[in-house]
Design brief:
Blueprint lengths: L2 H12 L5 E6 L5 E4 L3 H4 L6 E2 L2 H12 L2 H10 L2 H8 L5 E9 L2 E14 L2 E10 L1 H16 L3 H8 L5 E6 L5 E4 L3 H4 L6 E2 L2 H12 L2 H10 L2 H11 L1 E10 L2 E12 L3 E8 L1 H21 L10 H17 L6 E7 L2 H8 L1 H18 L5 E3 L4 E6 L1 H5 L1 H18 L4 E7 L8 H22 L1
Antiparallel strand pairs: 1-2, 1-6, 2-3, 4-5, 5-6, 7-8, 7-12, 8-9, 10-11, 11-12, 13-15, 13-16, 14-15
Helix pairs in contact: 1-12, 3-4, 9-10, 14-15
């Protein structure tokens, strides 16, 4: 089974909690869907394509509940999603799909993963209709009930703690906090909710999250958000027994005088999301590595080549060079010493190429052939590097070591329309050096 198959199977296994999972190449906008099931499968959307963002905008007009189309159209743009996920945080969004003609609540979670030279978005879609309807029912009950303490106690079964805050007087009361939350020793009631929040967060919030949470828990800021949208949600890390633990704070307006703030423990869900992203990254990395030498494989080279071709076509490509390296004498080693020795010979050649081109990606594109893309530091020193590898190879040839013929060519913006043209020139130069090495030997 090749690396791509292994990656696909792992992605499908990881999508068990979602009705659908998309894997989107940020550079090219190409995408593929893994595991479409449940009500989402009935929508019969495209499983793959080359224009993810365009397809999203086209499809939402047909499958998204009309009242949510405008909000979703504005939120699901490439610029907005990349901005929201730039710091590594997941981007989440609730909306309604038309399943069997009925508006059904779904949540979308998008995670930005980066490794090597590639950037991807993993987008998971999950049916949360029963949960959202239950929460909305509870929120409606909150606005109708006259006894806010009873409401908070009823809601608290689902949350770590609940605060009921008078938006005019700032008086607040805490209801039914879980044991670990009580251990934080925060005030259970008082007349200055916002001031007490600012004081307590310096003590109980994970240091990296304090500044942002402090900006969120400002009365005018939060009330303005509630007046505009009716609810507000924010995720942060609380120090529980000294361990950063992911929590979610949700605030809802309750009539004209009160707001209800519910805190829930979402540590398990968030960490599962992180594990999901890490597993996908590992799977993709594995699918782009040559199992024998550890350098990048031909799949990785094709992706890199496509990205460079796109830069060339857009006129934004910076200077680069291609080096093509071919291993001399591999057939003789295999015939006389066996394939194990041949594998060791290939690994020795890979090590030599990597040591010379320390700052450049090295790809094994054939059984005995490697390619290198030189940019920046290695590009500026390309002539010296060519001389270095030629000198080492000549010494190796005398001593019976690994022999590699290396040819190199530079990108010429005025003449080259793609990477293949640069590669062909480097390949011809490699064959010329290969003949010279035979003559030298």
């Amino acid at each position: 089974m090749d690396g791509t198959q292994s990656f696909s199977e792992m992605a499908m296994a990881l999508s068990l909690d979602y009705e659908s999972v998309y894997f989107v190449d940020i550079e090219t906008d190409r995408y593929a869907e893994y595991s479409s099931r449940g009500g989402y499968r009935q929508l019969q959307l495209d499983y793959s394509g080359n224009e993810f963002w365009g397809d999203v905008q086209k499809n939402l007009k047909n499958v998204v509940y009309e009242a949510d189309q405008g909000m979703l159209s504005r939120a699901l743009t490439k610029e907005n999603v990349l901005t929201e996920t730039a710091d590594g945080s997941p981007f989440t969004l609730n909306y309604r799909l038309l399943i069997d003609g009925q508006p059904t609540w779904y949540t979308l979670k998008s995670v930005h993963i980066q490794f090597g030279d590639k950037n991807y978005l993993v987008v998971g879609v999950c049916n949360v209709d029963s949960l959202v309807r239950q929460q909305k029912k509870l929120e409606q009950e909150t606005t109708k009930s006259a006894t806010y303490g009873q409401i908070a106690l009823a809601l608290a079964n689902q949350y770590v703690t609940i605060y009921c805050v008078n938006r005019k007087t700032d008086h607040y009361a805490e209801y039914k906090a879980k044991d670990f939350y009580k251990e934080l020793a925060n005030e259970e009631s008082g007349d200055d909710f916002w001031g007490d929040c600012q004081k307590n967060l310096q003590r109980v919030i994970y240091e990296e999250d304090r500044e942002l949470l402090s900006a969120v828990l400002v009365k005018d800021t939060l009330l303005k958000e509630l007046d505009n949208s009716g609810s507000f949600s924010y995720t942060y890390r609380l120090l529980v027994h000294g361990v950063p633990t992911y929590m979610n704070m949700k605030a809802v307006a309750s009539g004209d005088e009160h707001i209800v703030i519910a805190v829930s423990n979402i540590d398990t869900q968030v960490r599962r999301g992180h594990e999901f992203s890490e597993a996908l990254s590992l799977a993709l990395e594995k699918s782009h590595r040559d199992s024998l030498t550890g350098v990048k494989n031909k799949n990785a080279f094709v992706e890199f080549e496509n990205r460079l071709d796109h830069e060339i076509q857009s006129g934004a490509c910076q200077e680069f060079a291609v080096a093509v390296c071919d291993v001399n004498g591999l057939k003789e080693v295999n015939d006389t010493k066996g394939h194990k020795a041949g594998d060791e010979y290939i690994c020795g050649a890979a090590k030599l190429v990597c040591e010379i081109f320390k700052h450049s990606p090295v790809f094994r594109i054939g059984g005995d052939e490697f390619a290198v893309i030189l940019r920046d530091f290695d590009y500026k020193r390309r002539e010296d590097l060519q001389e270095q590898i030629d000198g080492i190879v000549q010494e190796n040839q005398k001593k019976g070591g690994v022999v590699v013929a290396c040819g190199m060519a530079c990108f010429e913006p005025a003449n080259d329309k793609n990477v293949a043209q640069v590669f062909e020139r480097a390949d011809r130069q490699m064959y010329s050096r290969k003949k010279a090495l035979k003559h030298f030997g």
